[in-house]
From TrEMBL:
Keywords: Lyase. Residues 31-190 form the DJ-1/PfpI domain. The keyword Lyase applies. It is an enzyme of class 4 (lyase). This is DJ-1/PfpI family protein. InterPro entries: Class_I_gatase-like (IPR029062), DJ-1/PfpI (IPR002818), INH-QAR (IPR052158). The keyword Lyase applies. PANTHER family: ARAC-FAMILY TRANSCRIPTIONAL REGULATOR (PTHR43130), DJ-1_PFPI DOMAIN-CONTAINING PROTEIN (PTHR43130:SF2).
Amino acid sequence: MIRNEMLYGKNMPSIIKLVEEGRKQQSKPLKVGIFVCPGFMPMDINGTQSVFTIASAEIYFIWKKKELVEGYIGWPTMPTMTFDECPEDLDVLAVGMVPPEIVEDEETLAFFAKMGNKARFIIGTCYGSLVLGAAGLLKGKRATSNSNVVPMLPDMGAIAVEGSDVVIDGNIYTSGPATGSFDASLLVLEQLLGTPFAQLVELAIEYDPRPPFGTGSPTLAGAEMTAISQSLTANLNDQFHQAALNGLKKHR
């Protein structure tokens, strides 16, 4: 029987050496918490996991229970830490798209409200910005998300910013989906370990997006394609908007 340590690669000599080499430049490993839950969107947290794994950080997958959850769709993930076990000195706390049911979940919002005031940096990618907003972390803050969520942000007390660039306000970094997770994480890493180190990590993962179709934003895609895309998610976006409003109201 293969032990969990083998499955995670933690006792593979090659992995041990790689981690040790990465940590030589750090006085102590960074502590990075990544929120996972049933139905989370893997692509919105992959950038954070990738960037900070290469930086040899301690990565915690955080949820209510240490029981297998399935990301959207067919992405089994084992949480490694519960809310109660989460250290209060996190360097980074990251959240991506999660279902509307989680956006208004009181226990989840209480966790983010608490840790949002303790973690050094917060990353909200895509619909993850709504989690931060519903937890009260975006009041008076400039923030962004995907094009469907940006119009909802003022209802969270945020100053909405359109576009795909990372928006930084204090220690909160928000971004659009997918590659936004990489962009925000590299910028946070720069603050934590300096520009040269962040540049090396960007090179190590050869992060150089070159989308093949050039339709990755409403501006690039044009009005017709954007309308089709928005119609496909209109009902879901209504659910997200209401869930965020409910969460913010219950959490006040």
